[in-house]
Amino acid sequence: MSQYKEIKKENQDNILFFRLGDFYEMFFEDAVIASRELGLTLTSRNKEKGIEVPLAGIPYHSSAGYIGKLVAKGYKVAICEQVEDPKATKGIVKREVVRVITPGTIIDTEYLDEKSNNYLMGIVVKKETIGLTYIDITTGEFVASEKKKTEDYVYKILGEINKISPREVLIDENSYTDLEKELKQFAQLNKINISSYLKVKKSEEFLKKYFKVISLDSFGLNNKVGAIEAAAMVLEYVLELQKGNEIPVDKIIYTGSENIMELNLTTQRNLDVVASNRENGVLGTLQWILDSCRSSMGSRLLKHFLKNPSTSKEIILERQKDIEFFYKGVLLREEVREKLKDIYDIERIIGKLVLGNENARDLVALKKSILNSLEIYKILKGNPIFEIALDELVEIYNLIESSIKEEVPFSIREGGMIKDGYNAELDELHNISNNGKDTILEIENRERERTGIKGLKIKYNKVFGYFIEVTKANIHLVPADYIRKQTLANAERYIVEDLKIYEEKVLNAKDKIENLEYHLFKEISEKIKNFRTILHELAYKLSYLDVVTNFAHIATKNSYIKPEITTEGDIEIIGGRHPIVEQLVGRENFVKNSIVLNNDKNLIILTGPNMSGKSTYMKQVALILIMAHMGCYVPAEYAKIGIVDKIFTRIGASDDLVTGQSTFMLEMSEVANIVNSSTKNSFIILDEIGRGTSTFDGISIATAITEYIHDNIQAKTIFATHYHELTQLESKLNKSANFRIEVKEDEKEILFLREIVKGGADKSYGIEVARLAGLPREILDRAKEMLRVLETRKMIIERKVKKEQLILFGEFEPEIKEEPIKKEEENIIQLENEEKIVLRLLREAELDKMTPLDAFLKLNELKRILN
């Protein structure tokens, strides 16, 4: 307990798994927490100063599941192992914490999502830049980037976090009070005080020393101060938790944002690009539609493509070329995909090898993956898409094939892994262990012949082990080299050198086999680890091959076409379909629609009722753009896609409870981000801007935003609105055009045809949508009655205003033919008598003789009459 307390003192913030024999034990508060969170039985042991010590424990060989559950609940777990052999140690065995496990540093892949990376992310904000980095220690991926610090940098950080989906985020405790609430929505947040050691020079020296390089230029990090600090912070954190254990990180990959389409947090969520970590499953997302990859590595790479569409025409065309090859070669594609199905997660196997938590099954899986890779190579017959290091891979395969059995136990401490013939000493031990009786008989027969004692027998007991028993009558025949072990009344017991050696081997054979196999296994692992660069290259090539063959498969299955990619900026989609919705409703039920946006017409004002398909249409265009920029084929009859640098969306209405922003405030914040960040090459979706305030305010704001985008930004935009007044902008804004959702209306019902046609809508059909939603008939009838009254009032007011304006300004009053007044108008006309009085008083007022105070009093009088 003294040893435990000393180690716990250094791990106050961690649940300490303290190794005692075959168990990890937890004491005191750790035991209470573990029993509560893991459902363990809470017991107690020796009383200490009259107080019972709470105790809970788990078997060490099944600890991974328990650790995974604790980490998922936000706890850190410190693993304290016995670092000495208990059999060879007198007194208390030495124990040390060998690693600390947090959400971003889990090394047991059994409890991780195989189709997602397990990222630890670091963020450093400087005066002018933001450094971002993320690492997955199960695959060895280590990526750094740097962005300019702009006014909307919070949006940029949140967008990157949503793309990366880290399990854990590190931040500088002195810099992030304004981001803390937002960051906690995404991952476990840990504050680090980096000021003590993360100065630029020290960070740079630390990274150079770790990677054994003279300069960080080879990683593209020259003068990237923020990225360097973030990378150093994350790497130092990981190494500290690993307590000196090696990690599978060989390089830093610097990635800029120059060739990546910007998809901010709102856009990713609005378009349902990938599933969120907080949502179970991917149903209803673009990832769900596009991911039929055969390997977990392929699924992870596809997810990366989804979150980071390329804006490089060369990269897009290269992917298209590879997809087309397999799109046309159906039999070849299916043959390759069949082999890919049997490829294991090589990336994570390499990670386990380096981290030292591999087992024999991992090596068998690696061998099978290499064999299938070689067969894929033969199928593709030297196609440059899959050039691999043949000789080295064959060498790895042969090493595993010659040494590791096909059927192996899970634990590498139990033996049963190494093949016969691989090691002579091990073969001898197995022979002794398996053929002990034969060896005893062999020695026994030999000694009978040598001594002439026919009754000589070899026996065994637990006290003396193996011995030769000779009766008193034959003692005179016993050779001089026999060593007396025990005297009995009628016999003597002896031992000879061969029997002594055999006894030692047999009694210790099992332990020796297990120890020797473990030693040999680690030797084999170390040899394979030396090939990790080649294996990483193989893993990526297999991942990429999986993605492009998958895209070809999806294109065939869903009738997608190859889009034309251009830098001219045009967007032309003929017969486009929403890739997600068409799968949910059935392609035969989905109505295709087209769009053309170019430098002459770059803004569409889209009108139509709710539930008619405006949002589906707009999202459809955005998703097709994302797919095209991935290199993927798209759901359309024809598509010409200009390179788009950013996609922005403003869709839907909801309060942000975390930041305390109302629906309208959130809407305006998002629109502000869009107009401040978009460029001429961006694509913007705006849905119902301005509806969170009064009608006149909303129309005014929506009009101003539309004009600003048209005149200043000139980004390609679709603006969906209920405000029919905005359709008048078509005549004012030369690059805008009105489109509407076609509606078929008769006396009985209204049918939404889902078809986009030229022209603006003049009705909202809100009551019809309310009917479809299931509101009671009495509510619908009352709503229709109120709508008639309000529309009549609007008509009368418009007519009155025209008439009174002429009278007010002293012009000739033309004869206005009054239309018959309906009953529902009578109450309205009575209310207008007061308005007539006000107008008369206003005409009689001599404004040029009034003082400001008189004017104010007259205005107050008129207001009182109206009220």
From TrEMBL:
Superkingdom, taxonomy of origin: Bacteria
Organism of this sequence: Cetobacterium somerae ATCC BAA-474
Sections of the chain in a coiled coil: 780-848
HAMAP family (alphabetical): MutS
Protein name, per record: DNA mismatch repair protein MutS
PROSITE patterns named among the record's database cross-references: DNA_MISMATCH_REPAIR_2 (PS00486)
Metal-binding keyword on record: no
SUPFAM superfamilies assigned: DNA repair protein MutS, domain I (SSF55271), DNA repair protein MutS, domain II (SSF53150), DNA repair protein MutS, domain III (SSF48334), P-loop containing nucleoside triphosphate hydrolases (SSF52540)
GO cellular component: cytosol
Cited function: This protein is involved in the repair of mismatches in DNA. It is possible that it carries out the mismatch recognition step. This protein has a weak ATPase activity.
Domain DNA mismatch repair proteins mutS family as annotated: residue spans: 682-698
InterPro entries per record: DNA_mismatch_repair_MutS, DNA_mismatch_repair_MutS-lik_N, DNA_mismatch_repair_MutS/MSH, DNA_mismatch_repair_MutS_C, DNA_mismatch_repair_MutS_clamp, DNA_mismatch_repair_MutS_core, DNA_mismatch_repair_MutS_N, DNA_mismatch_repair_MutS_sf
Organism lineage string: Bacteria, Fusobacteriati, Fusobacteriota, Fusobacteriia, Fusobacteriales
Keywords recorded for this protein, A-Z: ATP-binding, Coiled coil, DNA damage, DNA repair, DNA-binding, Nucleotide-binding
Protein residues bound to ATP: G608, P609, N610, M611, S612, G613, K614, S615
Family of the protein in this entry: Belongs to the DNA mismatch repair MutS family.
Protein encoded by which gene: mutS
An example Gene Ontology molecular-function term: ATP binding
Name of one Pfam family that matches: MutS_II
Gene Ontology biological process terms from the UniProt entry: mismatch repair
